[in-house]
Every structure is written in structure tokens, then in C-alpha cells.
Amino acid sequence: MPTPQNNLLAQPLRLSNGVLLRNRLAKASMSETLGTYDNHATPQLVALYRRWAASGIGLLLTGNVMIDRRALGEPGNVVIEDEADLPLLQQWARAATGQGAALWVQLNHPGKQSPKGLNAGNLSPSAIPFRDDMAAFFDTPREATSAEILDIVQRFGRSAAICKKAGFSGVQIHGAHGYLVSQFLSPHHNQRSDEWGGSPENRRRFVMAVYVEIRRQVGADFPVGIKLNSADFQRGGFTEEESLATIQALDDAGIDLIEISGGTYEAPAMSGAFQPPQKATTAAREAYFLAFAEKVRACVQVPLMVTGGFRTAKGMNDALRSGALDLVGLARLLAIDPDAPAALLRGRDSPQRVRPIFTGIKAVDRMGLMEVLWYTRQLKRIAEGGNPHAHESGLAAFLKSLVSTQWGTYKTRRLRA
Question: For the whole model, what pTM was predicted?
Fold first, then answer.
């Protein structure tokens, strides 16, 4: 067990733009769905992030904040496309920054990865349907026009500028887990033949345009990061080689932080229950994507964050000591133990352990939906001033979430009618 004197988690990290993070622990993005059904921020988000910031953690990343009210990933998403919520956004930012933690907003567009009935229609680089067993949950998207692509790029920049004005510490582009940026990068989802597809360089054009537009609107000193798949773990999808090339291009462009993850709704490798088989020596290192991070580190020096699989203070310290990463990303652990960073920064383990959540319904479990829905329920409890229920039944949580999601979809559509 690390002692306070040799606990690398407690060391600060300075980004290349001079911004200082107070330690090497980061809360990775989890979807909170604590916005209103017409997509405004709420006091519950302020309370949730105030609780996490009080744990002593260095960096907090919000759940996916959408850039367009017409393109939601789920009911209760916060959307930042104008300054209507600026006073509450400022409160949200201060809840963390006032306690010394950095708070970055994760900006996202779901593309095709949005449940049936929530949006009037979904777009994607190409009109590629989900696999047959997921067709009941997701519609086939239509192919985005060039004008729509350019509009989305500008929306990313506008949302980032509002986040800066509200006092957030930075922004992160969600380029992983099968959402729109990830769809553009994937040769499976992106089968275009124009300048936005057809080659790895063209498939990267969208994410590079998003980054450039954000940087144009926020300036050189405001941190901009990205969450990127190491691979899609899907036949014909985004590969490690393409991911490395994308990372090198973003590093050359001046990105401040890269978080490594992997998978999509169709192949949810970001969940431990759905990881590809690993050697015993690899599994002992805890982090799911550490081997890929080592390949990235050999190519670039941009600060790296790895999320997924970390269980112990020793495992986190060993990963940092290897030099393959600079920040340890925690997500699900902080949903069942919001005070875990306080223990880890003293070299102690959390008493809670992340476990796979299953319902017993094969179609649901195969998609890994409970790795979102079950934990979202715990976040709501924390936001309301309570404590998580670490042993809640997966099936019970699914049934309650199903009712809530259907009601939320109905309310969202009614409010936008």
C-alpha cells in the first residue's frame, strides 16, 4: 500500500498550457441525466459536483453535455447552446473550482446513438443501421449533409465558449463510445465518399475541425481535451492504428489532454464485463487500456488519462510509475463511493468494489446498458443529498429506469412539440 510520502496520486500535474491540476486523480464522465426534460441545468448538478470536489479530487469531467437540443442522447441531458442558463452554469462551475478542483465540461453529439422516439430524427456520417438485436432500441439514422456537419462543428465551438464564460476550467470533446465523433472516425459507421470519409485522413477531418473550432473560440490558454477510443472492438471499426494516427494529429494541433477508453454500445469494452480476454499479467495491472497507453506514450508526450479497471491505490500508483499515463480516471467507483478520492490520496483503498451489473435479460446485458442506467440512479441519490445503494438489484434498476426513460422521452417530445 502506498504511503503518503510515495503516493504518486497526490502529486500535482501541470499541463503544457501552464494549468495546474492539484493531483493525479480524475473523475471520468458519467451520464447524470439530471437536467430538466427541456434540457436545462439543475441545482442537483451543483450539489453532486460539490460533493465530489470535497473529496479532494484533482479533475472532474461532467457527464455528456449536448450541443444541440435537437440531438439528445437520453432524456435529462443538459444542453449548452446559448447563455440562457449562464447563472446556474456559473454555480455549477464554482461548486468545484471554489474547492480547488478543476471542472471540465464534456461536450457531445450522439449522432445515431440515441434511443428511439427521443429526437425527431437522428443523423450519422452514413445511414448505417444498428445490428438486428438493437434495432428495437435505435432507429437507422440518415446521412448528414455537408451543411449539417459544418453547423455541428460550429456548435461545438459555441458551447465551449459558453463553458469558458461560465467559469468552467476546460472542456473535453467526447470522441469515444460510439457517439458522433467516434462514428466519423469509424470505417464501419462512416462510409462516405466525400471529404468527410473514404480514408483515415478524411475520417479524421471531422474531429480535427471540431478541435480547431473550439480552440478558435476559447483561445490557447483554455484547456481542451478529448476522450478517444483505443479501438471500437467491432468488425470493420476504428482500429488501434487509426487511433494512434488520430492522437498524433491532435497532439500536433495542440490538444491539452487525451483520455483513452474504448468500445461502443454495440461492443461495450469500456465495461469490465465485456473486455476481450487478457493475459493474467495484463489483468493484474488493473487498467483496461494500459497496454495501448504505453503505445501512445512512445509516440507523443501530451498528458494521458486512462479510465477503466482501476481498483486499488497500489494499481493506480503502479500505472503512474510506469510512465504510460499522467492521470488516473475513475468513474463507477465514484458513483458508489463519492468520497473514494479522500482515501486514495492517503494511499488507502475504497471499501467499495465496482461489480458488473446484470439484469438476467440477455439482450439488455449484451449491450451493457446497466453500466449506464444503474450508476445513473446512484448519481441521482448523491445529488439529492443521500448516499448510493451499492447493492441495488440490476433487474429492479432496469425496470425502474425503463419506466423513467419512457416517461422522460414522452415529456421531452411534448416540450419540444
Answer: 0.92
